[in-house]
Amino acid sequence: MRTIDEGTGGQGDARADDTGEGRSRAPRAGTTTIPAPTRPGRAARAGMPTLHLPHAGSAPSPRAGAGASVPSQASTGVAELLRGPVRQARVLLSVPAAVYLSVPTPQGPDVVGVLTSDAARLPLGCVLFRPANGRPLVSVPSGAPAQVGGGRIVVGDLVVSAAAWWDPRPKLPTTRPALLPEGVRQLRVALYGEGVPHSAFALPGLPGGPSGPLAALRGAVRRADLDAALRTATRLIGLGPGLTPAGDDVLAGTTAGLVLLGHPAAERFGAGVTGLAAGRTTELSRALLRHAAAGRVSGEFAAVLRGLVGDGALAPAISALLATGSTSGRALALGLCTAIDLVDRTARPR
């Protein structure tokens, strides 16, 4: 038995508004032990910790006509769904880099993704050990039936098992970690540009100008007014095209940043954002906002946070995040910068 880790595959983007076909590179999280591929991955070589979960009970046999089970590295963020009872699900979207499934639960619908190794490692994903090949992962239309539970995902002729696990909540030194000032400056310059005022920053699909929601969010940050920032969320939720609109990505980055950086009102902000998302945006985006409220993020986002506390190379992590999709990575980075500013202004004596 050997340890496999997330480094055995490539990286990329299966996010939201880009339907899973970006190209990014990001560090990965730890996994459990199972028989491994012949080439060890980056996390194993870097000595990253493995994550052990108890085995689930015996899984039901896949339906007639389904192929052999394909192993994946599954996020612990969807462990309850995967290891729980078999539930009937439906396909939200199937593209070369990802297939997303809507799963009914007593708390409402949730989402699980099956992602190729060159897709962004979303906190709701089960990552396969192969890249996309230009064809949809499974030849089924949106709305087609699927099954999730008993340790497996069954959709069309694809059967995916959780062979290893990774934790989408990055491990930071403390509950309120200190960020490297030079690292924060590096992130801001990469996002906004050298010498460009933050007020000039714009995202495709989001209204700009002094009356736009981004300007309102900047104003709330300047005043360290979290309630005003939350009111801005009513203008950002669902704003922009795609399965995860850019407005949602900004809020996901802000929410996760506040949680992981230890803002005292992070839980209230996250609850407010997820409450607003009901009925205002897509199923996939709502699920990602719920994960953000629990501090569960993509591998690309986690790598930037770790770099900001001196754990890993920051420059390639920033490049990987900003390269995620057409707008998702930049919107998430904007949300993280917003969270950093709110935390800084909250902690600063007034």
If you had to describe this structure to a student in words, what would you say it looks like?
The protein is of the alpha+beta class. The protein has helices at 42-46, 79-83, 181-192, 213-222, 226-236, 246-260, 266-277, 283-293, 299-308, 314-322, 328-347; strands at residues 2-3, 33-34, 69-75, 87-95, 98-103, 110-115, 125-128, 145-149, 152-155, 158-166. Helix 6 (246-260) packs parallel to helix 11 and helix 9 (299-308) packs antiparallel against helix 10. The longest helix has 20 residues, at 328-347. The model is unreliable at 1-65 (pLDDT under 50).
Alpha-carbon Rg, integer? 19 Å
Strand content: 15-25%
Main beta sheet: strand number and arrangement?
Answer: 8 strands, mixed, barrel
N-to-C CA distance? 56 Å
Please state the average pLDDT score: 83
Counting DSSP H or I runs of 4 or more residues, the number of helices is: 11
Q: Quaternary status of these chains?
A: single chain
Shape: globular
> How are the strands of the largest sheet arranged?
3-7-6-5-4-8-9-10
Measured as a percent range, the helix fraction is 25-40%
- Ranges where pLDDT stays below 50 over 5 or more residues in a row are 1-65
Helix/strand structural class: alpha+beta
The total count of strands amounts to 10
What's the helix-strand series? EEHEHEEEEEEEHHHHHHHHH
